[in-house]
Amino acid sequence: MLFLASLPLILLAKIAQLQILPSQEKGVDFLQNQGDNRSIRKVSIPAYRGLITDRNGEPLAVSTPVTAIIANPQQIQGKDLKRLSAAMSLSEVQLKARLKRYRNKSFMYLARQLPIDKAESILDLNISGVSSQKEYKRFYPAGEVTAQLVGFTDINDNGQEGMELAYDTWLTGEAGAKKVVQDRAGRVINDISLIKSARSGEDLRLSIDLRVQYAAYRALKKAVKKHSAKSGSVVVLDVITGEVLAMVNQPSFNPNDRSYLSQGSIRNRAMTDVMEPGSTVKPFTILAALESGKFSSESLIDTSPGYLKVDYKTFVDPSNYGELDLSGVLTKSSQVGTTKVALALNPELTRELFQRVGFGEVVGSGFPGETLGNLPAYRKWDPVTQATFAFGYGLSVSSLQLARAYAVLANDGVRREVSLVALESEPPSSRVIGVEASRQVRYMLQAASSRKGTGKRAMIDGYSVGGKTGTLHKVKTGGGYDENRYMSAFAGLSPIENPRLVTVVVIDEPSDGSYFGGLVAAPVFSEVTGSALRLLQVTPDQIDVNRTVASIPKLIRKRGES
How far is residue 511's CA from residue 225's CA, in Å, rounded to a whole number? Predict the structure, then answer.
């Protein structure tokens, strides 16, 4: 009876021996192969790098899952080189050379950041010593539009430029680890245990509005091309918060394809490059004049006969403007008028005012390579130095520093900290200029941007505008100024009564024959600021009554009409 009961078990064992393990020797080989093909390993869990978004949550930098193909060079056999090199789009010679460099190592990367399907096609070859590792690759949805501001990471997901570098610690997560069962191609068959969870990096919400950024980028790119310029930059500031709503540069680059990357295209010129601001700082000289008590808005300055000799230098206006009040000096951008005002002031106090509005001080954003600019120390300047300083020569500023200074005028004399990151609360601020003087200069800037001023092309339909043009000779290598190379600039604000935006436009070396700031930079200001005001739904403060009336349909019928 016992024999009969055990018969089924004997039969099952025999069947297994015949069908599954044909012989004892082959059975051992089978189990051994399974051991070779599978292994328990500790693998890293890559950490997800934090998102970078604009102020409205639009993605600017995201991490996408990809695969690295890794290898143990000591395990790769010669018979597999042809298949492996073909799958990796390499020649056999190239692959052999790479393996030779790592012949004494047990680990090397064969390929990084491959699409998952491409990696699978390599793993499907089941080549000994070749496996895979999960990783992430950064993708930049806005491409060249935000390239210099956002920056980029390297192949190891470390920040290299821009905000990716400035906030690298914040964005970087912490890798985890787990034990898994892998096949020989490195594919996970089963998770065994979690050793440590990966911690994702923190997200970063920038201050820029991607809609405004696009508008600024399009306008700048068009202007640089139109005027055959070397480069350019635009900054748009929110006056109320101090947040940067747009910061664009030309030339730019595609951070998703860096095969044509150049040092010139990487630079965020709006923050790293400096210029002598020229006439764009004349409003601050006028501000110093009002603060001094020696001048009022009604004070008259005789600019006849259109030129003024000061020691070894003669300052010349395009025409003899005769008597001008302070507003007229700005409207006509009179060098003679500005010089006479400057020479009547204490130059040390003028310089001190320039410092109060932020010249010679970093913005403090933490952006890599942000420039300090140059505000020269006062050392008993001669009259020529005193005069040229007053209209923007002998000092240097960035586009962002100039925008911050104009924001002081827009804020009735209050200086706010500038931010590249979206703010959750009101930023620090301090009063640096009196309310009345700030407002007076603001209205003078409106006149300078009227049809009678040098900045008339900065006008915006429906909105009042105040601003100042700047046309300046570039410094030559070795000193002095180049008579044939210019920077064209415009700095302004809108609307006048309750300003919302400050915009600064700089075009470097326009070479199509136009170089005046009013011709080259002012139209860009108009296009960018006008678009931004409408996108932000700022209520128009100037309505052309004649145009409005003309556009109203004639709904009232004449008598006798049916």
Answer: 10
CA 491-493-495 angle, to 5 degrees, is 160
In SS3 terms, 79-142 reads as HHHHHHHHHCCCCHHHHHHHHHHCCCCCCEEEEEEECHHHHHHHHCCCCCCEEEEEEEEEECCC
Query: Over 50: is that where the pLDDT of 119 sits?
Result: yes
- Dump strand ranges (E) for 208-302: 231-238, 244-250, 300-302
Band of residue 12 on the pLDDT scale cut at 50, 70, 90: very low
First CA to last CA across the chain, in angstroms?
A: 118
**Averaged pLDDT, 196-215:** 96
pTM, rounded to two decimals: 0.87
Structure tokens at 423: 């703010």
- Cα–Cα dist 405/468, whole Å: 13
Pairing of strands 466-475, 429-431: unpaired
Of 319, 330, 316, 322, nearest to 304 (Cα)? 322
Q: Is the pLDDT of residue 240 over 60?
A: yes
Question: Does residue 518 contact residue 490 with C-beta atoms inside 8 Å?
Answer: yes
Q: How far apart are CA 298 and CA 327, in angstroms?
A: 8
According to DSSP, residue 281 is labeled G
Query: Which residues are paired to 503 by β-bridges?
Result: 236, 492
Rounded Cα distance between 53 and 39, Å, is: 41
CA dist 26 to 39, 258, 427, Å?
21, 54, 77
Q: Is the separation of the CB atoms in 117 and 75 below 8 Å?
A: no
Taken in order of first residue, the domains within the chain and their CATH numbers are 42-172+188-205 (3.90.1310.10), 210-253+268-546 (3.40.710.10)
Residues 409 and 288: beta-carbon distance below 8 Å: no
Give 260 or 230, the one with higher predicted confidence: 230
- Reference 539, options 492, 504, 502, 494; nearest CA is 494
Q: Flag whether pLDDT at 547 surpasses 70.
A: no
Q: Tokens for 555?
A: 């709904």
Active centre residues (catalytic): 279
DSSP secondary structure of 254-266? -TT-GGG--HHHH
Angle at Cα 241 formed by Cα 535 and Cα 437, nearest 5°?
105
Q: Which residue matches tokens 């790119």?
A: 221
52-53 and 204-205: which strand pairing?
parallel
Signed CA dihedral, 409, 415, 416, 420: sign only: positive
Neighbours of 486 (CB within 10 A): 25
- pLDDT tens-digit map of 475-506: 888 778 888 899 999 999 999 999 999 999 99
What confidence tier does 366 reach under pLDDT thresholds 50, 70, 90? Answer: confident
